[in-house]
Write a structure and sequence with these properties.
Layout: H1 3-20, H2 26-33, H3 37-61, H4 67-87, H5 91-118, H6 125-154, H7 156-177, H8 192-196, H9 202-223, H10 225-232, H11 240-261, H12 266-286, H13 291-319, H14 327-351, H15 358-392
């Protein structure tokens, strides 16, 4: 694996810390800025909305820009957004900085995914993606609990300052290691309109929907994990960073599993892992009052969420292989549509008085919806192939068309 791919993961670590760290800071932000817990949870949704909308937009705008300068510029804007967020006393301004930071993160990740997969052999996209996502999982293991710990020591603003500082060496790493354009090309061969046509493919749209549902389930519960740990399981606030670290450890294991099997055996991983993930969220909801169960399921659900989610993202890259510039943006967008919808749904349930276990139940429902959608699509495809076979008059299904 090229060194540049590993160094891109350093920047993804800083950005992943920012995206996930609010899971341990939401209660403190709500108290400091005088807003409700559900309103504070919208900071996660705002970041995700910016990521979802910004990924294709930033990828299109930067198609012909030098890759090294583009990635560096996105990181610089990301740093500035966190400095402003750390200084503001206004919830509205903080919300705006989350959107701006998300747009910069989206642009970086979309271009970074395309850059990383262009630097590796064709059948190694899953492994390259696993290296990049390792930055996110290390953020879950170290960055997010570290942010929660800083928040408890010096207030939530300290976590924002820490993200800005950690991003600075990532800028140096990108400048030192990333080529100006992958493959020596100054601009992608395919036109923007040609790449956008890829979105018409049913297979790609299906995988994007499944990725959004699974990631929505992950963020729905992860965003509100801190109050579940303290108010339902009855554990002290000091245990929240440790539980977040445990979830992040599971995420790291899940990405390793995805990196090993996503290129060669994606279907068994998605089917078995998806069923286990849905059952796991339901069991988590039922047993949330028992500390031992909470500890065990934080690890298990982190593993399953990222094993299934990472595999789905690799399938996006394969399904959009002939859209080299926008493939990464499609993957980023579907992840963050889910990351926006999940916390929003959890917040709606909390506001409606459904209780702190409601996000866990919603996560189970979202993964179940993904499984039912995949099964329905598979059955429809089988029926269509059988009908084509009958029309061919050979008594056997006709081969599926290419692409």
């Amino acid at each position: 694996m090229p060194l540049a791919v590993h160094l891109l993961a350093l920047a993804v670590f800083a950005q992943g810390t920012s995206e996930f760290m609010l899971a341990g800071l939401v209660p403190d932000i709500a108290a400091d800025l005088g807003v409700t817990l559900a309103d504070a949870g919208l900071l996660t949704s705002a970041f995700a909305v910016g990521m979802a909308a910004g990924a294709p937009l930033m990828a299109l705008l930067s198609r012909t820009w030098p890759r090294r300068a583009t990635l560096t510029g996105f990181l610089a804007v990301f740093v500035l957004a966190h400095v402003v967020g750390a200084l503001t006393g206004s919830f509205a301004v903080l919300l705006a900085t989350r959107v701006v930071g998300a747009l910069a993160n989206a642009g970086f990740l979309a271009v970074g995914l395309s850059t990383a997969t262009a630097l590796v052999p064709e059948r190694a996209k899953g492994r390259a993606l696993a290296v990049l996502l390792a930055g996110t999982t290390v953020a879950c293991v170290a960055g997010v609990p570290g942010g929660a710990w800083l928040g408890q020591l010096w207030g939530w603003r300290a976590a924002f300052w820490a993200v800005a500082l950690v991003t600075l060496p990532a800028i140096v790493a990108v400048l030192a290691s990333v080529p100006a354009a992958p493959g020596g090309a100054d601009a992608p061969a395919a036109g923007a309109r040609t790449e956008l046509r890829v979105l018409r493919r049913p297979r790609l749209l299906l995988v994007l929907l499944l990725g959004a549902l699974v990631n929505g389930a992950t963020f729905c519960s992860f965003t509100y994990l801190a109050p579940v740990v303290t108010d339902v399981a009855g554990l002290g606030a000091g245990t929240v960073p440790a539980l977040l670290m445990l979830f992040g450890t599971g995420a790291f294991l899940g990405v390793r599993i995805s990196g090993r099997y996503a290129d060669s055996r994606p279907l068994p991983l998605l089917t078995g892992g998806g069923v286990a993930l849905a059952v796991g969220w339901a069991v988590f909801a039922l047993s949330a009052a028992h500390p031992v169960a909470v500890v065990a399921l934080a690890l298990v659900q982190g593993t399953l969420s990222f094993a299934v989610g990472g595999t789905l993202i690799s399938q996006v890259l394969y399904a959009a292989a002939d859209a080299p510039t926008l493939a990464g943006s499609f993957a980023t967008a579907c992840l963050n549509i889910g990351a926006a919808a999940g916390p929003w749904l959890g917040g709606v349930a909390l506001t409606a008085g459904a209780g702190l276990r409601a996000p866990l139940w919603l996560s189970a429902a979202l993964v179940t919806a993904a499984l039912l959608t995949a099964a329905t699509a598979g059955a429809a495809t089988a029926v269509a192939r059988a009908r084509r076979g009958d029309r061919d008059g050979r008594g056997e299904p006709a081969p599926a068309p290419a692409g």
